[in-house]
Amino acid sequence: MADPASTGSGFREAFVAPGGDDPSAETPWGDCFEVDGGNGVAIPLLQITGKDFLIGGTIRYTGDMGLDGFDDITDEMKEQARTIDAAGLGKSDLASVPQFLRWFVGPYGRHTPAALIHDNLIEGSTPNGGVLEDDSASDRYFRFMLHSVKVPFTKRWIMWAATAMRTRWAVGGLRRASMVLWGLLAVIGISAAVMATVALVGGGDLPGDAEEAPVLVGAVLLAVLSGALWGKQWGAGVVAAAAAPWLLPPTIIAVVGYLVYWAIERLLRAFGIE
């Protein structure tokens, strides 16, 4: 495989950024990211596998990091966290979005440089192992980068919650166990809220002749209190619980559709059709 430090030098030199003298007019990150020292220059990517890329330059974030309240993070650590290059990042799948959620957000877009920088801040299964030495700070920094490239409010908060969940799951141990417990509580709370809402709107009855209003209040309290299982990122748990009722139905449809496609492909291969 090519040396990441030198990857893309040829096509990078030949590349002409869109937008003429003002490339930031075409790149949504032009006001807050510098690529190869040129503010707003398009990000050169080299695809090396079916899903992995190498970046062909240096990317530096110049906007608000949202880390003023993190006293343990030094200015030197912040400066390191602003910049990535091919040698430091290695290969990347851009934004790590599961297939069944790509109807909501894709692996690339205006959030691409934010996703690449965040990739470099999380050390897989090592908790707090990145440059900032604080996974919650890294995830919060990601949300501020999304804001800087004008990812809409609701989408960026959901992306932040999903990123926090993925980070906690990847670490394993107690963090993963807390996500499992949170998921169970979320299912209970969301189910109660949906049944109470249907009963309230449609005039039906809840099991045990329970009152709709107390059940709804209890479901909301459960969502807020179970957010404590996310530790310092309890707000991400609340956001995830609030988004799940309307994100899950289309996601389930996408999963079912993909499983049907997968079954058809396997059937065709069984008959020697490639």
What would you say this structure looks like, in words?
The chain is mostly helical and 274 residues long. The protein has 9 helices and 6 strands, in the order αβββββαβααααααα. The strands form 2 sheets. It has a 4-stranded antiparallel sheet. The protein is globular. The model has no long low-confidence stretch (mean pLDDT 84).
**What is the count of structural domains?**
2
Order of helical and strand elements: HEEEEEHEHHHHHHH
Mean pLDDT over the residues = 84
Strand content: 5-15%
> What structural class do the secondary elements suggest?
mainly alpha
Biggest sheet, strands in spatial order? Answer: 2-1-5-6
- Percent helix, as a range, is 40-55%
Alpha carbon gyration radius: 22 Å
Let me know the largest β-sheet.
4 strands, antiparallel
Question: How many β strands by DSSP?
Answer: 6
Low-confidence stretches: none
* Shape, principal axes of CA atoms: globular
C-alpha termini separation: 28 Å
Distinct helical segment count: 9
How do you describe this structure in short?
The protein is mostly helical. The chain has two domains: 9-171, no CATH class; 175-270, no CATH class. It has helices at residues 9-14, 75-81, 86-89, 112-119, 135-148, 153-171, 173-202, 212-226, 234-270, and strands at residues 33-35, 38-39, 45-47, 53-55, 59-61, 83-84.
Feature tags:
single chain; 274 residues; mainly alpha; four-stranded antiparallel beta sheet; globular
What are the SSEs and their pairings?
Blueprint: H1 9-14, E1 33-35, E2 38-39, E3 45-47, E4 53-55, E5 59-61, H2 75-81, E6 83-84, H3 86-89, H4 112-119, H5 135-148, H6 153-171, H7 173-202, H8 212-226, H9 234-270
Antiparallel strand pairs: 1-2, 1-5, 3-4, 5-6
